[in-house]
Amino acid sequence: MKDIFKGDELLTVLGALSNPYRLKIIAILHQEKQYVSQLARELGISRPLLYLHLQKLEEAHLINGYHEVSESGKAMKYYTLNPFSLTLNADVISQVANDITDKNSKE
């Protein structure tokens, strides 16, 4: 379980969590793995839009995607939630602030 993030990692995770659809995706995947079409239907969004959100969550290492072959022989892309814990307070921010690279300091 990931529970300690460095400066840039923390910014990536916070960015990934800053969208309501991404929070809903995490909530769904917390219950069970899901395949892309089912996630899109459950969220009521297009698959291309869903893939953008999934990419942000994968970049933050919060979810993992992989392919499985169904009983009918169809390849399906599934996603699972990676275990993580996020504690955010002034102490944590003070500890990671010096690890933030210049590319993130200008935003």
Automatic annotation (TrEMBL):
InterPro entries: ArsR-like_HTH (IPR011991), HTH_ArsR_DNA-bd_dom (IPR001845), WH-like_DNA-bd_sf (IPR036388), WH_DNA-bd_sf (IPR036390). The keyword Protease does not apply. SMART domains: HTH_ARSR. Keywords: DNA-binding. It holds the Pfam family HTH_20. Residues 12-89 form the HTH arsR-type domain. This is Transcriptional regulator.
